Predict the 3D structure of the following.
Amino acid sequence: MPNPDLIPEPFAQSGDKNPIPLERAISDPIYRASWKAGFPPDTRLPKDVGGEAPDGLDFNGVLNILSQAVVFLQKGNAYQFDAALAPYPIGALVRSNDNLTTYQSTAPNNSNNPNINTTGWRVYNGSGFVVDNLTTNDSAKALSAAQGKALQDNKLESNKVGAANGVASLEANTKVPIAQLPNASTTATGAVQLNNTLTSVSTAQAATAAQAKVLGDRDFGVGQSWQDVTSSRSVGVTYTNDTGKPIQVMINHNFGQYGAITIGGIELPMADGDAFSFFNFVVPNGSTYRINNGAVVVWAELR
């Protein structure tokens, strides 16, 4: 639809005209017009019954003000905030003082000047409406096309295989396909599978915390204490270390000229020159041990 006929300039812009008051003063002639009353009743009566003709300069003044607004809008202008017009209703639009931004009122009875205080206003268009970054957290503003293109260029697509640079893509359920996860090794980072045993020889799996605790519990001396077991031990009897850890045995013993102990079926000769002596040895977990001969004075074990 084409534009209607344009008003080239406000009516009587260069002609004579009266300023139109909000209300007619008592001292004004009875035919004077005002914004509140318009033309007074006397101007609508015949002159032969006391009527007064309206003032042509008032007509020029009214039409000049009205046509000023039309010409202003014809040229694509918008009104700036004016405290005289406040409060503004919700949805009202005003232009900033620099004419680069349009604000919209988001609250009824809004008297805040958006050039100073934007409470109750939002940027409707113009400067500040389009955000050219990815850090602004404002749902009322638009993202620039440049930033939209950056998101598009860097998005992960579900139908693409992992890129050569090692960046994984996403499947239809927005998960990284297992096939694209590299295995971790001693020289490379990646996905690690947990192993809850102490028998694996894998260099790509990691032991669980539970198995690490098992190893810690097996440390020699951890959770163990020295115990006098003389009353429960006898020479020539084979015992088994079933504690789950190595134990240490210390004995005050008299072998005579020659004596021996047996650990795990291996006999180890011990000689003390026919005297009492102290000696100790370690028994691995699960291994058997025995004092083969002689006289035991004290038998103690770290277990």
Observations:
- The chain has a mean pLDDT of 85.
- Residues 56-74 form the longest helix (19 residues).
- Helices lie at 56-74, 145-154, 209-218.
